[in-house]
Structures are given as C-alpha cells and as structure tokens.
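The records we work with from here on pair a chain with its fold. Taken together, the tokens spell out the fold as the letters spell out the chain. The record below shows the convention in full.
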Amino acid sequence: MNEPKNAAQNAEYIGYATPNKKALALLPKSIRNDRQFYPDDKTIAHLQVYDDLGQKWTEKYNDAFLEFKMVNR
C-alpha cells in the first residue's frame, strides 16, 4: 500500500480513505472531494481520537456491543 497506484486502487475498491497523499492525487475527483472520507481542516480540528482502553475494557466493550447486536436484531 506504500505505492501510490496500489493505495489508490485499494481506496477506490474498498471505499476507505487513504492516508497516502500521492495516492489521493490519483483518485477520481468525486472521491477526492468526498468530505465524508476526506474532511477539510476545519472539520478535522474538531475530531476526537479514542484513548487505548486496554485489554480489559476493550473486552468489556466488545462483549456489550455483541450483546447489543444480538438483542437488537
């Protein structure tokens, strides 16, 4: 995925944003300008990053989410 051409093909195929700046330039304009995948700097400034919860709390979160999915079918 380090090669721009490969990263661009992957991003277009799977529909995930690519952090590879050279690959971004190879994507169709409709994808490059999609703000859901490539938000502007103003939006990025308001985003939050999750803290690493550690194994114990990650397992609890996963168990709770699995239970939620099973109950809400």
Summary: The mean pLDDT is 92.
